[in-house]
Write a structure and sequence with these properties.
Helix content: over 70%
Shape: globular
Radius of gyration: 22 Å
Number of strands: 0
Strand content: under 5%
Structural class: mainly alpha
Order of helices and strands: HHHHHHHHHHHHHHHHHHHHH
Length: about 475
């Protein structure tokens, strides 16, 4: 079943993101209620290793689909078939290599989870491309309801299996097994559906494209790991597992910031490169950037205001100190999402080495600052290093994109939107009650949207014109 029109697709993607990205948020009370902080910290460390493997195993195929298979023509379908063939061989190699490395990795990281659970998680990670690529293909083919169906099934099943595993006393290892089992079934199902529609063929040109366009994205993703979960590897030697759990909880809560803007991203990112090549594409990209900035700004402030209530009502008291790190981690997530809005120019062309260059330098900045700051300042040093690297990425991508996809990064429009978003938080009195906090959390995105419309007043007339025509 298909939906027509960007607003309908946007609404469905919004629900999908609530389930896909909100899964971490929904599962936090479930996991925290069954695990001690030290166990939660152990789980977070194991997940960071698995996420590192998953980043590599994505193979950059999603971006290749967006760049070379986005149309409906014969060449696009031929490219999809070639992509399926190359992906099948690459995934098979990755499955073999990760299972070969599973034992040494488990020992090297000093993981407290069982080796069997870790192996199963690595198997699921090696199939990442079989999940992400078909989901990207569904979005390009304007099939948001099918996309939503898979997300609903995945989230509901993982939550149910986690509940069973934790209730049976399997601890962190049970959580890994529950999540990995669902991802393996999903990868096989989506991969089979993708191949049935696109067919499969072997093509040397697509293999070269994977190396030239996809591999830099893989390496760039690994660089991005340094700004995400790699700080756990440095923190582990300087703080306790219980303190790591507080940091992990705050990081998961901060992900709600990404949740509010990514429905827009799911609709916009696959289309922006093609649009930039059309007449008026640069101005349309500017407008879309401001819309994303308004959603992100209002959402980040709303998350900052609402999350303390969530922690108080849903989490055990042992995790309350996570709130100390939450504002800074929300800022880090907001910067990362803002980079995604600002990097279109780096993806134009036949290769992605500029993306790799920026993210590689940012990774070096982060790792260097982790090594310098974490031993002396602990978790605060980790956050400072992450923020510095994200700020570098933001301004570097904006500079690269300045001619082909310029963004209004520092303008009166952005100041207007940001002022609207921040006003409810600034005027909220200390120790405000629940009604005032909730009102401020609702007002922040509304005022940010008002700032966007004030910056682009012609959009109101456009919407009215469409309404009259309808």
């Amino acid at each position: 079943m298909r939906l027509s029109g960007p607003l309908a697709s946007f609404a469905v993607y919004g629900v999908a993101i609530v389930l896909m990205k909100g899964f971490s948020l929904i599962s936090i009370p479930l996991v925290a209620s069954r695990l001690q902080p030290s166990q939660f910290g152990e789980l977070d460390l194991a997940v960071s290793v698995v996420e590192f493997a998953a980043l590599f195993c994505a193979l950059g195929l999603t971006e290749i689909v967006y760049r070379f298979c986005a149309g409906q023509g014969v060449d696009d379908r031929s490219n999809l078939a070639a992509l399926a063939g190359v992906a099948a061989i690459a995934v098979a190699v990755l499955v073999f290599l990760l299972q070969l490395l599973a034992g040494p990795l488990h020992e090297f990281a000093g993981l407290g989870v069982s080796q069997g659970a870790f192996r199963l998680s690595l198997l699921a990670a090696s199939l990442t491309a079989l999940v992400e690529t078909p989901l990207a293909w569904l979005r390009l083919r304007d099939r948001p309801l099918v996309f939503l169906g898979f997300i609903v099934a995945r989230s509901a099943t993982q939550i149910a299996l986690m509940w069973i595993a934790l209730g049976a006393g399997h601890g962190p290892s049970g959580v890994l097994v529950a999540n990995a089992s669902v991802d393996i079934v999903l990868a096989v199902t989506l991969g089979a559906m993708f191949v049935r529609d696109s067919r499969m063929r072997l093509d040397v040109a697509m293999a070269r494209r994977l190396a030239v366009y996809g591999l830099p994205i893989v390496l760039s993703g690994l660089s991005m790991f340094a700004l995400g979960a790699a700080d756990r590897w440095f923190i582990a030697g300087h703080v306790s597992r219980a303190d790591m759990a507080q940091y992990a909880i705050a990081a998961k809560l901060a992900l709600a910031t990404a949740l509010v803007v990514q429905p827009f991203g799911l609709w916009w990112y696959p289309r922006r490169l093609a649009l930039l090549a059309q007449p008026g594409g640069i101005e349309a990209n500017r407008t879309a950037w401001l819309a994303g900035f308004a959603i992100l700004s209002g959402g980040a402030v709303a998350v900052h205001l609402a999350m303390p209530l969530f922690v108080e009502l849903a989490l055990p008291p042992a995790y309350a100190t996570a709130l100390a790190w939450l504002p800074w981690l929300i800022f880090a997530i907001a910067l990362n999402e803002l980079v995604s809005l600002s990097n279109a120019g780096a993806y134009l062309g036949g290769s992605t080495f500029r993306v790799l260059g920026v993210n590689g330098i940012a990774a070096a900045i982060a790792i260097g600052l982790y090594a310098l700051l974490i031993p002396a300042h602990g978790l605060a040093g980790a956050i400072a290093a992450t923020l510095a690297a994200h700020l570098f990425r933001l301004f570097a991508f904006a500079w690269i994109s300045r001619h082909v996809a310029p963004t209004p990064l520092v303008t009166a429009s952005t100041v207007l939107i940001l002022a609207g978003a921040l006003t409810p938080a600034l005027v909220l009195p200390a120790n405000a009650g629940l009604p005032l906090v909730l009102a401020a959390a609702v007002d922040a995105p509304l005022l940010a949207a008002a700032g966007f419309l004030a910056a682009r007043p012609h959009l109101i007339a456009t919407v009215r014109g469409h309404a009259v025509a309808a």
